[in-house]
Write a structure and sequence with these properties.
seven-stranded mixed beta sheet; binds biotin
Length: about 260
């Protein structure tokens, strides 16, 4: 990809999922910069096989097809690029300060306001040699705080005023463009990784991570070069590649030995 990425925005009243739509388009050879924006998704997808639901018109639901030349270990930077752009967009379009909860949530305080899901298709040809098709999708709760009991918030609630979805969308694409360029150079990737560390509100927090069959409790101390979370636990430092992280309240601690 080069510095003159053009966004081709396709708007839909309803789709199954903006990610699924663009993955299909990627297999048909659609170019980098193709964007799908939907008012409603019949089968929106979240991380770890979950659903992403929101009533029609209540959220910003969009995905972007990118074709970066990246090692598999750096693919997490695509998620980071979109999440970082969304942090900027929430600030610019709504005056809301948000942070990134590892690995891919946007939070205001402790409340989730958006989630990012990036999916790669290694078989989808159509980009430069060595490139990989990646669809990065984001769902922002604009007027709906998410399912009851899930601890989410909406951008309008956080802003204390109505938020225009179109303005948020425009701000998102503007903030994304330079970060997409950054994906294609070692210096740009190092900058994105650094920016992610600066915006990741999980770092420095005591956390509980649910992994298959066990729970890790400790202090989130860093990110590895491939985006894994380092957790300093009583038994040593654990490297977490994927999982659900809970930020512990500051006075919950991580046990008497810490
Ligand atoms: C998560 O928090 O689990 C990630 C949620 C990602 C949801 C967005 S909505 C637009 C795009 N299309 C999908 O099907 N999912 C993503």
């Amino acid at each position: 990809m080069s510095g003159d990425l053009h966004f081709d925005v396709r708007r839909f009243e309803e789709l199954d999922s903006t990610n699924s739509y663009l993955l299909d388009e990627a297999r048909r050879g659609a170019p980098a910069g193709t964007v799908a924006l939907a008012d409603h998704q019949r089968a929106g997808r979240g991380r770890l096989g979950r659903q992403w639901e929101s009533p029609p018109g209540s959220g910003l639901l969009c995905s972007v097809l990118l074709r970066p030349t990246l090692e598999p270990a750096s693919l997490y930077l695509v998620t980071a690029a979109l999440a970082l752009a969304a942090v900027d967009a929430c600030r610019d379009a709504a005056g809301v300060r948000s942070g990134i909860k590892w690995p891919n949530d946007l939070v205001v305080g402790e409340a989730k306001v958006a989630g990012v899901l990036a999916e790669a298709d290694l078989t989808a040809a159509g980009g430069p040699v060595g490139s990989v098709a990646v669809v990065a999708g984001i769902g922002v709760n604009v007027t709906w705080p998410g399912p009851p009991g899930a601890g989410g918030t909406s951008l309008a609630e956080a802003a204390g005023r109505p938020v225009e979805r179109d303005r948020l969308f425009d701000a998102l694409l503007s903030a994304l463009s330079p970060r997409v360029d950054a994906l294609d150079s070692p210096r740009g990737r190092a900058g994105l990784a650094e920016e992610l560390r600066g915006r990741c509100v999980t770092l420095g927090r005591d956390v509980r991570v649910e992994l298959a069959g066990r729970t890790v409790i400790g202090r989130a101390s860093g990110l590895t070069p491939d985006g894994h979370l380092l957790v300093d636990a009583a038994s040593g430092t654990e490297e977490v590649a994927a999982g659900d992280v809970v930020h512990l309240r500051r006075n919950e601690g991580t046990g008497p030995d810490r």
